[in-house]
Amino acid sequence: MRITVSQSALAKALAVVGKGIGNQATLPVLAGVYLRAQEGTIELQTTNLNISIRHAIPANVEEEGAVVVSGKTLTNVVKNLPDSAVSMEGDKTGVRVTCDQSSFRLNALDPQDFPEFPSYELSQQVELSSSLLTSMVDKVYKVTSKDTSRPILAGVLVTVEDNTIRLVATDSYRLAVCDTNSETSGVEGAFEAIVPGAIFHDVLGLPSMTDTVQVGLTDSQVVFSFGSTTYVSRRIEGNFPNFRQLLPTSCNTTVRVDGGLLAQALRRVSVIALSNPSVRFDIDADAGLLKLSASSPDQGESTELLDVEVEGDSMAIALNYHYVLDCVSAAATDAELTLELLSSMQPAIFKSYASINYLYLLMPVRM
Predict the structure, then answer these.
(1) Residue 145 falls within a domain, yes or no?
(2) Which residue in 304, 353, 331 sits closest to 140, CA to CA?
C-alpha cells in the first residue's frame, strides 16, 4: 500500500471510526484500524465485535493494498502532524508515515486477521433529519438504564409511522417520551426498533454526520448510513415496556412553571441536599405558589418560593432533584413546563409542548 492523503481528512476519518476500536487484549487486532487503499479512496474500518464502523475518504493511491495498525497510536500520530499531505507506505509487517519533516514507522498486523465488515440485508429502513433526530435523542438518552442485567432498558424505542417520530426511554425510575411530526422517506408501514442509547448518541455526534441519516434494520442489527460512513450495531431484541400503561388518565393538580426559574431555584435549594437528593414540592393552589424545600441533618434547611399557575388541589410531593434537572435541561430551560400530579405517592408528570413534544414521568420519593 502506498497513498497520500490530507492530514485533516485523515484525522477526521480516524475520529469517525475511533468509537469502534476494541480494548480486548486477547484479540490485539481489534485494537487496530483496518486501512484499505483502492481506486482513489482509503477506507478505514474498526470493530469491537459489538459495533463496526466503516468510513472512506479520497486519497491519492499509488499502490493498492491493506494494512492494520494500532488505532490509538495512529490517531495520536496523525492529530499531532501539521496540516499537510501525509504519505503512508507499508504492508502487514509495518507502515511508514511521513509528513513534512516528520517520519514514523508503525508496527502492523496481518489484515487477513481483521474481522470482515458485517454483511446485512435490511428488512426496514427510514431516512430522517439528523439535526431533528439529534435533538430528540438528547432529550431521552440520559434516561436509559446503566444496568447491564436489563439490556432492554439500556435502549431507546424508536417508532416512525404516518410521519410521526417517537422516541421512548426508561430506567424504571423515570420515563421520557418525545415525539414530533416530520416528513419521512424510505419507510413502508410502521418502523420500530430498540437502539442502544449510548450508540444512538455516539452515532449522531460523529464528525462525518450529514443532513440526513438512514436507519435500517435486520433481525439482529441496526445500521446507520450517511455520506461515506456506515455504522453497524447489535440491535436490542425483546419487548419494550408498554409505557402507555404507566401514564395516569387524569390528574388532581396541574402546575405551570417557567423551566429556567425552576432550574435556578432547584440548584439553590439542593445545595443543602448533599446526602439526600430529595426536594419537597409544596403546591399552594389558593396562593399560586410552589415552595421548594430541602433539609439535611448535617447541613441545615433551605426553601424557595416560585409564582406558578395552579389548577386543582393543593398538594405536596418529594422528587429526586437530579432527575428533575435532567428533565428541565431536556425540555429546554426557556420552555414552560406543566407538572401534573395525582397524589403524593403516584408519579409526577412533566410536559412541554413545542416543535418536539416532551413528556417526563418521575417516581416520587419518601417525604
Answers:
(1) yes
(2) 331
Closest CA to 54 of 206, 159, 269, 167: 206
Grid coordinates standing for 328? 428541565
Residue type at 146 in one-letter notation: K
- Paired with 352 in beta bridges are 358
CA dihedral 56, 183, 215, 231 (to 10 degrees): 30
Question: Cα(92)–Cα(1) distance, rounded to whole angstroms?
Answer: 10
The burial of 1, by beta-carbon neighbours within 10 Å (0-12 exposed, 13-18 middle, 19 or more buried), is given as: buried
> What's the pTM?
0.90
Is the dihedral angle over the CA atoms 241, 245, 250, 253 positive or is it negative? negative
- 56 and 162 together in one domain: no
Number of compact structural domains in the chain: 3
Q: How many helices and strands (H and E) does the chain possess?
A: 6, 26
What is the SS3 string spanning 51-110? EEEEEEEECEEEECEEEEEEHHHHHHHHHCCCCCEEEEEEECCEEEEEECCEEEEEEEEC
Please say whether the beta carbons of 103 and 89 come within 8 A: no
| Same-domain pairing of 202 and 275 | no
245: part of which helix (H) or strand (E)? none
* Calpha distance 184→178 (Å, rounded): 16
pLDDT, tens only, 178-237: 999 987 776 677 889 999 999 999 999 999 999 999 999 998 999 999 999 999 999 998
Return the exposure string of 246-283: e unless at least 16 CB atoms fall within 10 Å of the residue's CB, then b: eeeeebebbbebbbebbbebbeebbebbeebbbbbbbb
Cβ-contact 88, 14 below 8 angstroms: no
Instruction: State which of 243, 278, 309 marks the end of a domain.
Output: 243
